[in-house]
Amino acid sequence: MNHNQSKSGVRPAAAVQWLLALVCLGLAGMAQATGVGDFVVDSSRAAQLENCVEPTEYMRRNHMEVIRHQRDTTVYGGIRSTKHSLSGCVGCHVGYDADHKPVAINDKGQFCAACHNYTAVKLNCFDCHATIPEGEAWNQVMAVDHGELLPGVEEQADAAAAGSRAQ
Amino acid sequence: MSREPDRQVNQDRRRFMGAAAGAVAGSAGGVGALAVGALGYTAADDAAAAPRTEPVSDRHRWGMFVDTAKCAEGCTACVDACDQENGLNLQAEPHGSNEAKWQNQRAVWIRKVKLQDKTSGHVTNLPLMCQHCEHPPCVDVCPTGASFKRADGIVMVDRHTCIGCRYCMMACPYKARSFIHEQVDQKLTRAPRGMGCVESCNLCAHRLDEGSASTACADACAAEGHHAIVFGDLKDPTSAVRQAMAKQPSRQIREDLELNTGVRYAGI
Amino acid sequence: MSKRIVYREWLIQPERYWGLLAVLAAIIAIGGASALYMEHEGHWVTGMTNSVVWGLPHVFAVFLIVAASGALNVASIGTVFNKPAYKPLGRLSGLLAAGLLVGGLLVLVLDLGRPDRLVVAMTTYNFSSIFAWNIFLYTGFLAITIGYLWTMAERKGNYLQRPVGVFAFLWRLALTTGTGSIFGFLVGRTAYDTAVLAPMFVVMSFAYGLAIYMLVLMTSFEWDGRPIGPKILKRLKDLLGLFVGAVLYFTIVYHLTNLYGAKNTDFEAFLLANGGIYTLMFWGGWVLVGGLLPLGIIYHPRLGKDRNWIATACALVIAGGLAAMYVVIIGSQAFPLEMFPGKTVLAFGAPGDVGGAVAPYTPTLPELLLGIGGVGVAMLIVSVGIRVLQFLPESLSDKEMDGLAEAV
Q1: Per-residue pLDDT at B35
Q2: B contact test, residue of C37, C127, C128, C340 with most B CBs within 10 A
Q3: Residue C328: closest CA among C251, C240, C257, C256
Q4: Cross-chain Cβ contact B148/A137 below 8 Å
Q5: Domain presence at residue B54
Q6: Which residues are bridge partners to C324 per DSSP?
């Protein structure tokens, strides 16, 4: 198909080349980003776990959506036990210093800041939200500890939709 | 089942959550059957058992009853407890601010108010917080809908959409709301707080969501032995708050505005 | 063919023009810096508190928005009420209205706790909020004014002038009523819980808008050496006198209504007798400077003909208007919420927390600078507008005006 395009005109071919170049650049950038940001902080609870609440690749790309869905569920519905709570993110991913004191998750080099600084994406969760687990209410981490984790908001919606279809 | 653990919760909520998780797993079926079969539906059961798994609904309406006769002069237990619970004690006066102004700028969710009758000289003490109106003026005026009433009657602010216009503060007849005037460095996970948004008492919504039907102020008042604040479900005739309200007449503050407040007072 | 009005760009010397722009730019930059400072530090650097939640920026913002609506009045008189003498004044009227509105809105927006979330305000609406409605009223006003200007300036659009003018006139009334209602619907606050507030805002808008309009007109003509005849000046100042008189009348009605309701007597005593700065602002600013003095000048047999005195009267109306806004917006917040009738509030929260007593408020410099910055923006828009486009008529001399009146 590419061949056909290049026959039909120079411009599409050039565009394709540009696109390819861009994708390569992007991949290279991502590879580097992975180099910088491919870590859970060693001292964090997350470091001992196989996976995040969703597959890592999925979380890398969609964590903001996932958090936002849970946000409305929590604020308006009062549900804090689904596996996508921001408070759960902080509880699991926060690093600890030599004295076992938690380090703010948005501090330089910590879990959130490492990637967000690298990609220059402003993060304003922590304008209001706590950056270390302190005075937590019920959240994902506790729900796991008590074996009461609820599925994510999207999964619940999917399940509900599947249920209604089945009927 | 529900009311007993409730009291334990007041002492140690963490321990309760662990225990409840197990207890509920074991007995949820039994309780459910009992509630539906023998007593009919009572709201307290599903409210105060386990962390919430279903969105809040209007089957409950949370509220309080304050018996001003029991509210002791000079006692600030409720205020202190609220400060601790909701991280209000973590607010720091900005450098270069002046003390008097800061007292009017820092966030306050609950206040002790002392009144004296102009004719008789009788002195009344009471705690004043968001009255959780059924028809809240703050919700009416909010341009973005950030100020909202949760299905279970709790009036609160969705700080994700609050733009800090402070119109709700203009509208509130109770001075219940606070604007965050300064950078907030320290906060609790359960009580997010940030510069430029408005907030107020949310009846310790995080406790309710965990399955504990209590508020910090009511617990603290009871722990002091005063029992002036009773918290509970206004829609459940068997709840402690309804029982207390049934025993004596109570009023709403600014009853003339017909806001149908969720907080009622006896002796004013 | 009837006599045509000739419009010309503002032709003052470049040095003077650029000098003016530089001054305005500096005022705006300072205002912007103040807003940044307030946003960065938080509102603790202002005098605003949890008791007085809207401060000096709102005084300026509401004043500018109200005046914007009034400034368009001159154009309405020309097109809607068919007074030929006002026709040449229409274009400047529209431009000034747009400028004042933009200035006022900027101040309002920059005083938000989270101005960065403006997009939220533009995308999520709560239609039970008069504030949300006002967002539409304001943006709509801007669009209509621009359309109105087009019908006045483009001959092809001339036939639309009257319908658009009528629409703009009605929209303008709605806008001022809406602005007044922002306060009028606050049931919890003694001062605001009255329907008189909305029509009072409409009349205030006429007065303040016209005063600003006259000052801008006289200044821009003076600098450019264009003539304004005594006849049109007399018309304008008589109109101003009428509006200022109407403001005073509504002021009396407002207070009488409040006094009639027994529960409001405390508030009235506060405002009229023992409210300190607010009482002073009311009598000294709102009534004397903004009302009686200008009326005295306008209807004085000699001073009323003197341009400088007329300009002084306009300035006094503006100053009085700001004082009136200060009393309406801040005075009524400083006055304690009446929660416990028949009871004295001995203590309200921690010591220093205010309730049951008059709340202190001292505006700080950044608030003032932000407000003035908004005025700067309005003036910048007008200056650039009249310089690059044909907004100002070449002459408003009596001869010109007589010709116009005969021609139509």
Answers
A1: 36
A2: C340
A3: C251
A4: no
A5: no
A6: none
Q: Is residue B103 located within the same domain as residue B219? A: yes
Range C61-77 average pLDDT: 94
Asked if the Cβ–Cβ distance from C345 to B113 is below 8 Å, we say yes
How far is the alpha carbon of A81 from chain B, nearest alpha carbon, in Å?
7
ipTM of the complex: 0.91
Dihedral sign, CA of C119, C122, C123, C128?
Answer: positive
- Cβ separation B183–C41 shorter than 8 A: yes
Question: Each residue of C61-73: b (16+ CB within 10 Å) or e?
Answer: bbbbbbbbbbbbb
Domain extent, residue B97, equals 62-266
Q: Are residues B28 and B144 in the same domain?
A: no
Domain count, chain B: 2
Local confidence band at C231 (pLDDT 50, 70, 90 cut-offs): very high
Question: Which among A76, A91, A128 is the nearest to B193, CB-wise?
Answer: A128
A141/A133 Cα distance (integer angstroms):
10
- Residue C170 sits at the chain B interface (C-beta within 8 Å): no
| Residue A95 and residue A63 share a domain | yes
Identify the three-state secondary structure at position C82: coil
Closest among B157, B171, B136, B137 to B61, alpha carbons compared: B136
CA distance B221 to chain C (A): 16
Residue A27 has pLDDT above 90, yes or no: no
On whether residue B180 sits in a domain, the answer given is yes
B17 touches chain A (CB under 8 A): yes
Read off the pLDDT of each residue in C372-385 and give the average, rounded to a whole number: 98
Same domain (yes/no): B83, B179? yes
